[in-house]
Structures
1.
Amino acid sequence: EPEVTQTPSHQVTQMGQEVILRCVPISNHLYFYWYRQILGQKVEFLVSFYNNEISEKSEIFDDQFSVERPDGSNFTLKIRSTKLEDSAMYFCASGGENTGELFFGEGSRLTVL
Amino acid sequence: RKEVEQDPGPFNVPEGATVAFNCTYSNSASQSFFWYRQDCRKEPKLLMSVYSSGNEDGRFTAQLNRASQYISLLIRDSKLSDSATYLCVVNLDTDKLIFGTGTRLQVFP
């Protein structure tokens, strides 16, 4: 069964460092997303990406965040200068035409010290 | 008011019980509705979509009341494997899904 894969599964970084989280969405999907979940809290939307551009972003997704789909398969989330409050599980998701049914990766846990 | 509101639980029920979860949403322009399931420290997975007329999938029944902006999920004959957090999810006909905080279910033997 096709699946969304994410790397790394866990990353520990120092405050102020840059982090890149990588995702390989399901190959025939058109819509790509990043969500995050702080421990014990709800899943929060960060950004959606369609047709090689950002289609929507939340207020969490400030100038420190960026996304790219550099080679038609990978979908990356970059955090330029991490803060303590960026510590969370980051989920990548992809979807086909039915944008309600999203397939999530297993997540990348980011710990900022 | 929160965009999507759920009772966080936990709901502790014995195997075989029927349990119901409720959810309210604040934006009347919301277009589509879903229940996702999230196991502890895992990713969310779609459980079922929620249609205006109500829909059933095996032991699971979902209902939508647009007038009251209310969604429900009923689980019959609970199994141990149903233990998880159930996430109410709403789509405003945009590119983003809005998740509730989830309701935790624990089914005990």
Note: Chain B touches chain A through 22 residues (CB under 8 Å).
2.
Amino acid sequence: DGGITQSPKYLFRKEGQNVTLSCEQNLNHDAMYWYRQDPGQGLRLIYYSQIVNDFQKGDIAEGYSVSREKKESFPLTVTSAQKNPTAFYLCASSTEYSNQPQHFGDGTRLSIL
Amino acid sequence: AQSVTQLGSHVSVSEGALVLLRCNYSSSVPPYLFWYVQYPNQGLQLLLKYTTGATLVKGINGFEAEFKKSETSFHLTKPSAHMSDAAEYFCAVSAITQGGSEKLVFGKGTKLTVNP
């Protein structure tokens, strides 16, 4: 079945540590997205990529970095510069057409040790 | 800039009662609108979408929504609530980024509780 796989499901970060969240899709979608979800805040866009080797900052990119070396993969690194990283992180993908929905993975919950 | 307002962060209904979740949007262009559902510790699942054409849109699990341009609304309804409908619901509108790309703008969500 086609879909989006996020790993790990739970992740713990120590102070001063960078951590990387994995996102892989086999839907042959060009566009991929990373969102942060906090209770009562809805989803906020961190980074997005419309094509391989290209990505743009979303609304809350500070303290995060991404890469898009392959169409299928869009990993997110939460750097030590992100002072409040505890959240639920969701990856999504879509076709290039804005009238088509985004498909979501099951998320990674990041906590601070 | 496009935005979405969901009225009521929490809605509680009895099993068998009507479900009404409210969504208002602002958009300078004809919008594409979406409703998603999220169960605890899971990703978002598409319920339904409006792009063009018929303004009453039917989705999965018995949900439907009506696009009302004059009211800039896209409220989600279900005639009879089921216990399995308890979840968080998000309304979203398609928007254009500063770089000219497409993105989704989400409302803050409405958590639906269904009482037996």
Note: The longest strand of chain A covers residues 42-51.
3.
Amino acid sequence: SYELTQPPSVAVSPGQTASITCSGDKLGDKYACWYQQKPGQSPVLVIYRDSRRPSGIPERFSGSNSGTTVTLTISGTQVMDEADYYCQAWDSSTYVVFGGGTKLTVL
Amino acid sequence: QVQLVESGGGVVQPGRSLRLSCAASGFPFITYAMHWVRQAPGKGLEWVATISFDGSKNLYADSVKGRFSISRDISKNTLYLQMNSLRNGDTAVYYCARPKNSGSDMWNYGMDVWGQGTTVTVSS
């Protein structure tokens, strides 16, 4: 079955750039998206098709896809960005696949 | 506004059944495939099942295949998840979610509308 791997945690200081990676076999051949989930809340789509932002998502959120890794980048990270982040892709055998999630701490 | 509202969660004994519902509003339900995603306590997101826009094709995660069944009632704008032979490992918050795109390439657009979730606890 297809798997996506994320680091369990990432820490960043306010105003700095946070990068969260997600790796998988031939991930560069697929499209990935990213979700933000704050405690007690439902997930929110922040990036789709690797790098597109849904309406209402701040410009500081961006995404990229390179080879076997996709990256979510948050520029000028704010305290309000502290949350769990999940990557997700589609695979022909496993269908919808989520990464294990990364807890972003802003301190 | 676009909204998904789940219901039907509760506490159930192992081996028993439960049916979840997801009421959709604010968008043309008939044109969108729909997903169920769950999240065990303190764990990450896990895809459960997907149904095509017309209900002709269903996909399931291996962990629920043969036990869960996804369906939809277009006349009621409602999505269902019938869960049979429940196990302790099925304990989770269950979300229904809508793909961002209603076309054939919806898989590449992610899920942009989520319900608030309904909690299922399987325990003796």
Note: The longest strand of chain B covers residues 18-25.
